[in-house]
Design brief:
The chain is mainly α and 115 residues long. Helix content is 72%, strand content 0%. The chain has helices at residues 8-18, 22-30, 34-37, 41-58, 65-70, 79-113. Helix 1 (8-18) runs antiparallel to helix 2.
Length: 115
């Protein structure tokens, strides 16, 4: 068994600063409570601003809908890219609501068929 006296917050910060892979940096920030990385927010913001256009082009597997939703739109460097991301998020949100509603509708139909 492994034990450490290092606080989770300190581990998050250390891993963000010491790791070179974007997927690992993303996991150690956006998958954790913002309280873990709040003290290095400007570093995280700078990293996102520097890499957003590359990620949009390369489409890394780790940058899925869930991860994109956790990145503040204000951190996207260009106005055009911010606008595109806002629109994408609106459309994803509408699709999610539609799926939920259809799922509930289908569930109701199934229940009525079983009566």
């Amino acid at each position: 068994t492994f034990y450490s006296a290092e606080r989770g917050k300190d581990l998050t910060i250390r891993n963000f600063r010491e790791r070179s892979e974007d997927s690992t940096k993303a996991s150690y920030t956006f998958q954790m409570s913002k309280h873990h990385w709040n003290s290095i927010e400007e570093e995280v913001r700078s990293w996102v601003e520097s890499n957003w256009s590359k990620w949009k082009e390369e489409k890394p597997k780790w940058l899925d809908e869930n991860m994109k939703a956790k990145i503040p739109v204000e951190w996207i460097q260009t106005k055009k890219a911010r606008s595109e991301e806002k629109e994408r998020r609106k459309s994803v949100g509408k699709q999610s609501v539609a799926k939920i509603m259809m799922g509930d509708h289908q569930k109701i139909e199934e229940e009525q068929d079983n009566l």
